[in-house]
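Incident log, support desk, overnight shift.

02:14 A customer reports that sequence design results differ from what the structure should imply. Their input is reproduced verbatim below. On-call engineer (initials T.W.) acknowledged and began investigating.
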């Protein structure tokens, strides 16, 4: 048993107190009925009532893919990290004062939160991929044009993103990665795709001049999830900062994961990174220049967000759903 199994069992227990009767029926996931999934046709209930309608419209309007979702609805899997990120952050997209207060309580030097101008002017964006294909990411072996990319699948995407003016006057964009019950095996090399594409050849040329400080490490040493994901997100942050996307002076990465999920946070999957730290956060921080990466435990983050909640019903709902 581990964190993922514990969460599945918890959802089996609490479903009747949170969801409609129809949603409490076992849901089909990977062709099998699962008690920890929502019943057929109830996938939208994976989103809290306080954000559901607006979040669904946001994803449809921007043609963003839901992970394991279909027909404009999220996954029916209650351990979905994408739904958890949306449930946590979406409420703040129309509440800049509350968001600024929460970020200050978390230690960011925020003067004022700024609208994400390239995403319709909300204060939190989701599945942001940057305005250009900075890293030359491909589809079927060909580099994809900027406007032909999709958000949420197939290209490096930030689960959530925030923009603010710092107390020193500089503008910062934070690209967020949200983890929930994920876990990754040690030594599972992601360098080559099933079709034989060498991903190190795609991302390696962008390391020089980036925020990464790899020393003698080759980029291929990072091709093990979750470090592969952090590599790509850090390179996206580096490119956005270099190009001053949305006038950004600093673009940093925030990685959020449950402390309790030790199968994720304390498993160093990349052999070459063994000995650099005891957690994913400490290891990755050792590879990135100052102020460009921050790791936060979800158990520390969400209570602060709840303290600054623009809607008390949301604060109660997020706690009832996740226990954070």
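02:41 Re-run completed on a clean worker. Output:
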């Amino acid at each position: 048993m581990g964190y993922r199994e514990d969460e599945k069992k918890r959802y089996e227990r609490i479903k009747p107190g949170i969801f409609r009767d129809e949603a409490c029926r076992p849901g089909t996931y990977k062709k099998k009925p699962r008690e920890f999934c929502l019943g057929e046709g109830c996938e939208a209930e994976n989103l809290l009532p306080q954000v559901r309608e607006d979040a669904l419209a946001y994803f449809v309007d921007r043609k963003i893919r839901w992970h394991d979702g279909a027909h404009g609805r999220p996954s029916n899997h209650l351990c979905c990290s994408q739904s958890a990120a949306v449930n946590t952050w979406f409420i703040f997209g129309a509440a800049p004062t509350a968001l600024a207060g929460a970020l200050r309580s978390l230690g960011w030097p925020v003067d004022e939160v700024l609208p994400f101008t390239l995403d319709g002017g909300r204060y939190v964006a989701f599945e942001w991929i940057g305005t250009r294909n900075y890293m030359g990411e491909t589809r079927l072996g060909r580099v994809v044009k900027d406007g032909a990319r999709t958000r949420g699948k197939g290209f490096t995407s930030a689960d959530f993103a925030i923009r603010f003016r710092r107390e020193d006057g500089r503008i910062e964009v934070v690209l967020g990665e949200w983890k929930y019950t994920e876990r990754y095996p040690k030594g599972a090399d992601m360098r080559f795709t099933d079709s034989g594409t060498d991903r190190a050849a795609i991302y390696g040329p962008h390391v020089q001049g980036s925020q990464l400080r790899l020393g003698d490490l080759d980029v291929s040493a990072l091709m093990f999830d979750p470090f592969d994901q952090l590599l790509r997100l850090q390179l996206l942050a580096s490119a956005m900062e270099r190009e001053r996307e949305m006038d950004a002076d600093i673009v940093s990465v925030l990685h959020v994961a449950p402390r309790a999920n030790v199968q994720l946070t304390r498993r160093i999957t990349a052999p070459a990174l063994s000995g650099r730290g005891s957690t994913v956060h400490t290891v990755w921080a050792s590879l990135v220049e100052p102020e460009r990466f921050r790791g936060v435990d979800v158990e520390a983050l969400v209570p602060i967000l709840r303290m600054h909640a623009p809607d008390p019903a949301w604060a109660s709902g997020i706690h009832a759903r996740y226990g954070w």
